[in-house]
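Private note to self, pasted from the team thread so I don't lose it. Backbone tokens:
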């Protein structure tokens, strides 16, 4: 005969097993984000809030994605042609980034777009899905800066 106290370890085992299984399934859909080291960022970025630091680190390390993502803050008038340009001003083909753009330090729309791109990429979304989300979410704020 099984007593009530004998069932408790089995119940705990089953709950833990199901939890581990579900977390393993969801982890398979997530990607690790690539970020540029904060110590390679300008002093202004290093002194910025964490969300801004992360946005700069992500944009700098993921140019192929971020050049496909538009910005809707009006920075197209400044010559920006993607959300990437809100963070990186000039790149040298051999040594990498030479000048960071300070625009995103004071623009929450730029940072919000990048934070959304980070979240969506981490959850397994494609660049096209991320761009569609950004277009649908931020299109109300102004024109896209992608020609």
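Design output:
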């Amino acid at each position: 005969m099984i007593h009530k106290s004998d069932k408790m370890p089995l119940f705990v085992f089953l709950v833990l097993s199901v939890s581990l299984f579900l977390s393993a399934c969801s982890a398979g859909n997530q990607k690790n984000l690539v970020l540029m080291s904060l110590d390679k960022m300008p002093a202004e970025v290093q002194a910025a809030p964490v969300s801004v630091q992360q946005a700069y680190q992500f944009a700098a390390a993921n140019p192929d994605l971020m050049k496909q993502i538009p910005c809707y803050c009006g920075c197209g008038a400044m010559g920006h042609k993607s959300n990437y340009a809100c963070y990186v001003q000039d790149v040298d083909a051999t040594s990498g980034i030479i000048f960071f753009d300070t625009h995103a330090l004071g623009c929450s729309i730029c940072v919000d777009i990048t934070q959304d791109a980070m979240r969506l990429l981490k959850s397994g979304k494609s660049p096209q899905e991320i761009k569609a989300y950004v277009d649908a979410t931020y299109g109300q704020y102004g024109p896209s800066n992608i020609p």
